[in-house]
Amino acid sequence: MGQVVYTKDHEWLSIKDDVITIGVTEFAQQQLGDVVFVELPDVGSTLSIGDEAAVIESVKAAGEISVPLGGVVVSVNESLIDEPELLNSAPETDGWIFRLTPTIAVDLRDFMDAGQYQQYTQDGE
Question: Which helix (H) or strand (E) holds 27?
Answer without folding.
Answer: helix 26-32
